[in-house]
Amino acid sequence: MGNTIGRNIKNYRKNKGFTQEELADLLNVTPQAVSKWESENSMPDVSMLIPLAKVLGVSTDALLGYDSLSENDEVIARVKSTIESMNNSDEGRAQKALRISEYLSTETTLNPGCFEIILDYVQETANLSMYADPVLENCFPDDTERVKKLCKDAIRKGVYLISHCSDKELVEKTHYAVAWIYIHDKDFDNAREHINVLPSISTCRIKENIGMELTFFESGFEKMKGDIADSSVALFDLTASMMNTIAQDYAWYGEREEGIRVIEWCEKIIKAFATRKETLNMNHYLRVRRSLAFFKLVSVRRAGDEEGAVKLYNEFAEEIKAEDLTDEQKQTVMDLLQNDIDHYSKYT
């Protein structure tokens, strides 16, 4: 068993969002009993195992720890190091994605309890499915079955993670990646099933917002400032991802003038965040700045205006040169942009 039953009860309870008192009410026991289980000062009676599992939404095997194999930090470190080496090779993006997915397919079979590696596998295979998508890049017309086999395997292992992992963040990331595999396979119904269980911003009832207020009422404004800083970075990451998606689709499928207008709107929002550097995930900022610049180039080149594209590129280079960034960061942005141009030039 990778985890003790007490730790499992605590993890699954928190994953459900129950307090100890709420779980006790559902099981008709005292809060003290739940506290003792979780601190391992006592064990739940065997007659409680099935009710516990049902209330927590897990199998009795998972509750007992038989399906919660502990992650091996040494294995995870080795696998991530190997992936980094593969990513640093001179192969094309699509071939890297295929090679990494096949490598992770083997590793996840050998290490079925390493949920972090399973997540990496599903995410890398979602990336691979984009390159294989015949509507998008169609990079593997002669290896369709090879890619399909990987996608099917990644979905199966992703579903296993979703069913057995008590880490809510890993589960949500896996739902997201599995949905992308289904989207590129044109299985939209199954994609929607995974999307529908993800958190939504539509209600505005997000934990970061009320969490800041909780800190204020509990500890005061000075303590709340730390939560504000953390939430600001999270808000930037979410905004940057959405701006990237919006700009990408307007660049590839919208009319030139409309596309440029929308992408410039996205840029203004991202630049507004940059007026307070402490709100930024700098790595994400550099990547989204290059993405938005690239999508403007796509809009112009799709219209056949190569001269206009060169002008936009030069303007962006000057803009980055004038930004409050280190020389290394400036070089990173331009290298990322050139990498996109080299890879996608065949489509524009």
What letter string, H or E per element, gives the SSE order?
HHHHHHHHHHHHHHHHH
N-end to C-end Cα span: 54 Å
Percentage beta strand: under 5%
List the uncertain runs.
Answer: none
Number of helices: 17
For the secondary structure, the number of strands is 0
Largest sheet: none
Structural category: mainly alpha
How many domains in all?
3
What is the residue-mean pLDDT, rounded to a whole number? 92
Shape: globular
Radius of gyration: 24 Å
* Helical residues, percent: over 70%
Give the tags:
Serine Threonine Protein Phosphatase 5, Tetratricopeptide repeat; 17 helices; globular; mainly alpha
Provide a descriptive summary of the structure in words.
- The longest helix is centred in the C-terminal third of the chain and has 33 residues, at 221-253.
- The protein folds into three domains: 5-64, 434 Repressor (Amino-terminal Domain); 73-195, Alpha Horseshoe (Serine Threonine Protein Phosphatase 5, Tetratricopeptide repeat); 212-347, no CATH class.
- The protein is globular, with a radius of gyration of 24 Å.
- The chain is built from 17 helices and no strands.
- It is mainly alpha-helical and 348 residues long.
- Helix 7 (93-110) crosses helix 9, helix 9 packs antiparallel against helix 10 (168-184) and helix 15 packs antiparallel against helix 16.
